[in-house]
C-alpha cells in the first residue's frame, strides 16, 4: 500500500514539473491569447494567474496535447471574465498596481500603461475596439480560430455550441472586423497615410508637421464628453487646431488608425475600450474637418473597422 502511495506521489510530482515547464514555455503564447480575448495586458495577466491555479489542480495524466489543453484553460477563463464584464458593466482600473505572482517564475510587478500601449500598438487599436463590440462567444470563436488556428470542433464545447455555429460566429466577427456594411473611401490608402502622419506628429509633439497636415481653414468640433465641458467645443484654423492636438499627447499613446464609417480616422481605446473617436474630412491630402466624439451614444453609432489597406 505504501509503495502504491509513493508511486502515486512520484507520478503527481512529475506531472507538476512537466506542467510547470510547459506553462513557462507557452507563457508568451498564452498571454497573447488572453490579451486578444480581453484587450488589457493587466487583465491578461490576471487570466494567466487564474488559469495556472486551475491547471495546477487538474489531473493531466490523460492529456495528450498539453499545449492545446493550456490554451483551452486560458480561453475558458477569459470567456468567464468577458461574461462577468458584460453582466457587471465593469471597466478595467485606470491604474495598474503590483499584484501576486501569476505562476512559476513570473517577474515581479504588473504591466504599466506604457506596456499596455506598446501591446495595443502591436495588435492594433482598431482590432481591439472591434473585438470589444463582439459577444464573448463571438470573440472567442474569432480569436481562437482566426488568430491561433484552433479548429472549430475544439472551440464549440467552450461556448456550448456546435462546430457549425462556432464557424458562423467567427464569420460574423470577421465581417465586423473588416467593416462590410459601409462602402470604403475610394482614396482610403491616401487618407490612411494622412491619419497615420497626424497620429505620429501628435505622439512626437511635432507641431510644425501637424500644421502641414491641416487645411488653413480646418475646423474642429468636440462634443461635451471629450474634455468634459458644459458646451461642445468649436475651434478653427490650422494653428489653433494643432495646438489643441498638442494637448492630447498623453491620449495619443492609446490611439490608433481605424476605419470609421468607411474612411480613415483615429480611435482612442485604453485597455481595449473605445473612449474617443476622431472622424476626419479630407480635401486632397489635407484635413479640413475633425469631429471628436466621446459621448457613448454617438460612439455606439459609429462603424469601426480595421483599415487594412
Give a description of the structure.
With 309 residues, the chain is an alpha+beta fold. 56% of the residues lie in helices and 14% in strands. It has a 7-stranded mixed beta sheet, sandwiched between helices. β5 and β6 form a beta hairpin.
Beginning-to-end CA distance, first to last residue: 68 Å
* DSSP summary, beta strand count: 7
Number of domains: 2
Mean pLDDT: 87
Give, in spatial order, the strands making up the sheet with the most strands: 2-1-6-5-4-3-7
The CATH architecture of the largest domain can be named as Up-down Bundle
Q: Please give the radius of gyration in angstroms.
A: 23 Å
Shape: elongated
Unreliably modeled segments: 3-11, 93-103, 105-109
Percent of residues in β-strands: 5-15%
CATH class of the largest domain: Mainly Alpha
Order of helices and strands: HHHHHHHHHHHEEHHEEEEHE
Secondary-structure-based class equals alpha+beta
Going by CATH, the homologous superfamily of the largest domain would be PhyR, sigma-like (SL) domain
Amino acid at each position: 500500500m505504501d509503495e502504491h502511495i509513493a508511486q502515486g506521489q512520484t507520478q503527481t510530482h512529475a506531472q507538476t514539473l512537466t506542467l510547470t515547464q510547459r506553462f513557462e514555455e507557452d507563457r508568451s503564447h498564452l498571454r497573447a491569447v488572453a490579451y486578444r480575448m480581453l484587450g488589457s495586458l493587466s487583465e491578461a495577466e490576471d487570466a494567466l494567474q487564474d488559469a495556472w491555479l486551475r491547471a495546477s489542480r487538474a489531473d493531466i495524466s490523460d492529456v495528450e496535447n498539453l499545449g492545446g489543453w493550456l490554451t483551452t484553460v486560458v480561453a475558458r477563463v477569459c470567456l468567464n471574465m468577458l461574461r462577468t464584464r458584460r453582466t457587471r458593466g465593469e471597466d478595467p482600473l485606470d491604474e495598474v498596481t503590483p499584484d501576486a505572482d501569476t505562476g512559476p517564475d513570473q517577474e515581479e510587478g504588473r504591466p504599466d500603461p506604457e506596456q499596455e500601449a506598446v501591446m495595443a500598438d502591436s495588435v492594433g487599436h482598431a482590432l481591439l475596439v472591434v473585438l470589444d463590440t463582439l459577444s464573448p462567444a463571438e470573440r472567442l470563436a474569432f480569436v481562437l480560430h482566426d488568430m491561433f488556428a484552433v479548429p472549430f470542433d475544439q472551440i464549440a464545447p467552450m461556448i456550448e455550441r456546435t462546430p457549425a455555429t462556432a464557424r458562423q460566429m467567427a464569420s460574423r466577427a470577421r465581417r465586423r472586423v473588416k467593416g462590410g456594411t459601409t462602402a470604403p473611401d475610394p482614396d482610403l490608402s491616401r487618407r490612411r497615410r494622412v491619419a497615420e502622419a497626424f497620429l505620429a506628429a501628435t505622439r512626437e509633439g511635432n507641431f510644425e508637421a501637424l500644421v502641414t497636415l491641416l487645411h488653413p481653414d480646418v475646423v474642429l468640433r468636440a462634443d461635451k464628453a471629450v474634455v468634459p465641458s458644459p458646451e461642445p467645443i468649436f475651434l478653427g484654423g490650422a494653428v489653433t487646431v494643432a495646438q489643441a492636438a498638442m494637448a492630447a499627447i498623453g491620449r495619443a499613446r492609446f490611439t490608433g488608425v481605424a476605419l470609421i464609417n468607411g474612411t480613415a480616422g483615429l480611435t482612442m481605446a485604453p485597455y481595449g475600450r473605445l473612449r474617443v473617436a476622431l472622424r476626419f474630412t479630407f480635401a486632397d491630402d489635407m484635413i479640413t474637418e475633425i469631429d471628436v466624439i466621446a459621448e457613448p451614444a454617438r460612439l455606439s453609432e459609429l462603424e469601426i473597422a480595421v483599415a487594412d489597406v
